[in-house]
Design brief:
Length: about 400
């Protein structure tokens, strides 16, 4: 394992309650469709999305032998590379097909009743799946533009989501079946393209904006505030994408520039941590019970983690035991500190136990499947949103 110098960068900024518009915000088109034209400044994200699509369609050739996992760390002492242990087995999965072919399912969330909520990017709908009956109920959000990205459930059971092309945060009340929208055009700036979202311990809703900001919404008042996030070193624009919230700060991953970072909303300080690949796109991020941050890098297939105390970043190349694991998408952490993540290239979801450096690949029964988002449900069941050869589906996996 090669040791890299600690090049962590800290940027001091003030909180931005005035929400001054960024000079060049750009929205991201969906992976499944290019429904809205973008200007030339958006080119880097179009290329990322195109790369993802091409690699997924090609399904990537399988490797003949497993490749070793080589952890790489930012700062600290290096240790020898080791061969990770791997297991490959068929997943015990229950597949629930969606009523519309190629619905374009995005990041799911599970409510207190066990229902799965997910945005349908292609159909422009918010869907609820009853895990007991498999019944799918769909609603069309107001002013949507086929770009529902992430979903999250609040303490009252309301469903929150980001609508990137329509540039708003949405809330859906399942009891009254009504929507309320929080436009970013007036609260923050036009064309911010909200992406990931998560609640903190105080019930405040945080979200990333491809316009180069991280925002916070108070559900009680609707008030919004945002903080400008600098571009990674060597990048011309800032595209914060994935998100995780802990008591130590607001953690995020860039879709460009090969970096992860942390925002301290009290001081406005932004700390950037570069990755080994300066072109890496960090897709998903989550914190485990100890506060350690986990994230996936899409291509090549890298599973990363951040020590919340030292800020040290460790990157692990995912083995090829079930075929080339690229591209990595969704991620979820368990109560015992293990990690689930989705591997589109291997048509599998992967369970990683850091204590044993053990990867277990669960290959999915859906033909030529592309597992995408994931969320943990009741009893530790893992719910996956995916794209099969014929239809989109959600799947319940029990190890």
């Amino acid at each position: 394992m090669a040791e890299r110098p600690d090049t962590t960068e800290t940027v001091e900024q003030s909180p931005d309650p005035s929400n001054t518009p960024d000079a060049s915000p750009h929205a991201r088109p969906p992976f499944w469709r290019r429904l809205v034209r973008r200007d030339a400044g958006f080119g880097v994200l179009v290329l990322v999305a195109l790369l993802v699509t091409v690699l997924v369609i090609s399904r990537l050739p399988s490797a003949a032998t497993p490749s070793p996992t080589t952890p790489r760390q930012t700062g600290g002492a290096a240790s020898p590379a080791t061969q990770s242990a791997t297991i490959v087995q068929h997943a015990n999965a229950t597949i629930i097909p969606m009523p519309t072919s190629r619905a374009g399912l995005m990041q799911p969330a599970v409510d207190a009743q066990g229902n799965i909520w997910v945005g349908e990017m292609v159909t422009n709908q918010l869907a609820r799946i009853d895990p007991k009956t498999g019944q799918v109920t769909e609603w069309t959000p107001p002013g949507g533009k086929y770009n529902i990205m992430a979903t999250a459930i609040d303490r009252q059971g309301d469903v929150w989501f980001t609508e990137q092309a329509a540039n708003y945060i949405g809330r859906f009340d399942p009891t009254t079946q009504t929507f309320k929208i929080y436009p970013l055009d007036t609260a923050i700036a036009p064309r911010m393209a909200p992406q990931d979202l998560a609640f903190d311990a105080n019930g405040q809703l945080w979200f990333t904006l491809l316009g180069g900001r991280i925002g916070r919404l108070d559900p009680a008042t609707g008030a919004m505030q945002s903080w400008q996030i600098p571009a990674p070193q060597g990048a011309t624009r800032s595209y914060p994408f994935s998100l995780a919230i802990t008591a130590r700060g607001i953690w995020f991953g860039y879709l460009n520039g090969g970096a992860v970072g942390k925002l301290d909303p009290t001081t406005g300080k932004v700390t950037l941590m570069p990755l080994a690949n300066h072109q890496a796109a960090v897709y998903a991020m989550a914190a485990d019970p100890s506060g350690r941050i986990w994230f996936t890098e899409m291509q090549p297939a890298i599973l990363g983690s951040i020590d919340p105390v030292t800020g040290k970043v460790t990157e692990r190349t995912v083995p090829h035991s079930a075929g080339d694991p690229s591209i990595l998408y969704g991620l979820a952490t368990t109560g015992d500190g293990a990690v689930w993540f989705a591997s589109a290239g291997a048509n599998a979801v992967v369970y990683y136990q850091a204590s044993d450096d053990l990867y277990t690949f669960y290959t999915l029964p859906a033909s030529q499947s592309i597992p995408f988002g994931m969320a943990l449900g009741h009893g530790g069941a893992l719910w996956i949103s995916g794209d099969g050869a014929d239809d989109n589906y959600v799947a319940r996996l029990t190890a």
